[in-house]
Amino acid sequence: MHFVEANGARIPLIGLGTWELRGRTCARIVEQALKFGYRNIDTAQVYENEREVGEGVRASGVRRDEIFVTTKIWTNHFAPHDLERSTKDSLVRLRLAEVDLLLLHWPNPHVPLQETLGALAHAKRLGLTRNIGVSNFTVALMDQAVAASPEPLVCNQVEYHPYLDQAKVLDACARHGMALVAYSPVAKGRIKNDPTLVRLGRIHHKSPAQICLRWLVQRNVAAIPRTSRIERLSENIEIFDFALNDEELDAISAMGSAGGRLTDFAFAPKWD
Q: What backbone phi and psi angles, to 5 degrees, belong to 223?
């Protein structure tokens, strides 16, 4: 298993994202992913599938201490008492004693960051989670969060793929000893006919998605591609038997721009 180490956490470099996975499909995909060798499963309160993710974890037969489970607190639970209660609710749904990583899902300017991070650190001290972090935070917000948090933050989970330049966030993570965890790492499937990735795929006998994921892990970025297809599960994890050279890595990095973002909402922060 390949990991990124960050402020005491060991995060498996490839995981399964479960956004939009529901019901039996969700439980089955989680179970199969773990049987294929995945050890990193990502969910969130707002996905409304924590119960099914927990079912998949139990059905897999893989020991709990081998699986890195992440969930994310939705923004309407950021007030301190609310945060603790909603975390406990998540654990009830997952049927787990603790998660490995608890994240703030998006910034919420309506609750002071210091209060929220105090509550997040308290959840860690209560044993509800082994590690804490943030998601969709800009560089400025990361700096504020690190300064305000009584416990070390281990990651910022953000959208990241070849079309979106995240160099500033990557640098900020490195500066704080944090990992960057990439969601939508294959740009929601848009990379499959990309000429650069297709060309590199031919050289390495890999798919464009595998080239894309390999580029991320070689940058020490953990990636959590979502799929509802069993055949994609095995493809996404079979990226540790080859390496891209510097020229190839640079060619992929050159595809990125600030305008490549696919996930944006009215409540999102002002992006870097």
A: -125, 140
Residue 227's pLDDT band (boundaries 50, 70, 90)?
A: very high
Give me the pLDDT at residue 259, please. Answer: 87
Residue with tokens 């970025």: 221
pLDDT at 124: 98
pLDDT at 1 over 80: no
127 pLDDT above the threshold of 90: yes
Catalytic residue (choose from 47, 160, 163, 183): 47
Q: Is there a domain that residue 271 lies in?
A: no
Q: CB neighbours of 141 closer than 8 A, spacing ≥ 6?
A: 107, 113, 134, 269
47 is annotated as an active-site residue = yes
265: in domain? no
Per the prediction, the chain carries an average pLDDT of: 97
Q: Is the dihedral of CA 262, 99, 153, 73 positive or negative?
A: positive
Residue 167 has a pLDDT of 96
Q: What is the dihedral of CA 70, 75, 80, 82, to 10 degrees?
A: -90
CATH of residue 56's domain is 3.20.20.100
Give, as one character, the DSSP assignment of residue 69. E
* Encoded amino acid at 96, one letter: L
* E strand intervals along 56-194: 68-73, 101-104, 132-135, 153-159, 179-183
Inter-residue contact 4 to 220 (CB < 8 Å): yes
Separation between Cα atoms, residue 269 and residue 272, nearest integer Å: 9
